[in-house]
Design a protein that fits this description.
Number of strands: 5
Order of helices and strands: HEHEHEEEHHHH
Structural class: alpha+beta
Distance between the termini: 24 Å
Largest sheet: 5 strands, mixed
Strand order of the largest sheet: 1-2-5-4-3
CATH class of the largest domain: Alpha Beta
Number of helices: 7
Shape: globular
Radius of gyration: 17 Å
CATH architecture of the largest domain: 2-Layer Sandwich
Number of domains: 2
């Protein structure tokens, strides 16, 4: 995988995408090895591109690919092998969705969202941004961990992971399902020493 060229090739294959720009710490030269890759995606036909995104990112072989539920603008979030977090950011406004509600149809999305959030938080923790990590752990609890029954709100990322795993396993038993562990197995490499 060669970023950002692979992202530009995959998305640039669609005629409706006008421009793809590297942004954030990667663009400014402030990135660490764990930093995510942010791309601004410019399009005149967002609706068409929004519907095409799952197909457009297939060449990148994402482990996770989903729309961010909480961003102020539309953002397609990817986890690639490595693990590597990629955010494809559009300028169109996005209204935050309510907290997750666990069910047989949402548990896989919850799992993908948790591990994406965890990978992002790990990079912030590694960068020494403890205030941001603490604030985001509260938000993670409100939108994802709390609805799963994790109490109290975790004080550390490690406690969030432990609480999430236990709650997810209980929900799987309750619902009679088992979701794949691919996202967890990919992200946990960045967390476990």
């Amino acid at each position: 995988m060669v970023l950002p060229d692979d992202v530009e090739r995959a998305l640039g294959a669609h005629a409706g995408i006008d421009r793809i720009e590297l942004a954030g710490s990667r663009a400014s030269g402030r990135a660490s090895r764990q930093s995510d890759w942010d791309f601004i995606v410019v399009t005149a036909d967002f609706t068409e591109i929004r519907d095409a995104m799952p197909r457009l990112v297939v060449p990148l072989r994402p482990v996770v690919a989903q729309w961010d539920r909480l961003s102020r603008t539309w953002c397609y979030m990817l986890i690639l092998a490595g693990p590597i977090k990629v955010d494809l950011i559009f300028g169109q406004p996005h209204a935050a969705l309510p907290p997750w509600h666990p069910s047989a149809s949402t548990l896989r999305g919850i799992d993908d969202h948790f591990w994406d959030w965890t990978l992002w938080l790990q990079s912030k923790q590694a960068a020494g941004k403890q205030g941001l990590v603490e604030a985001e752990l509260g938000k993670l609890h409100e939108h994802l961990l709390g609805p799963l029954g994790v109490m109290p709100a975790p004080a550390t990322l490690e406690l969030a992971v432990a609480g999430y795993r236990a709650a997810r396993n209980q929900w799987e038993r309750r619902l009679g399902i088992r979701i794949p562990r691919t996202a967890e197995e990919t992200v946990i490499q960045a967390i476990d020493p």
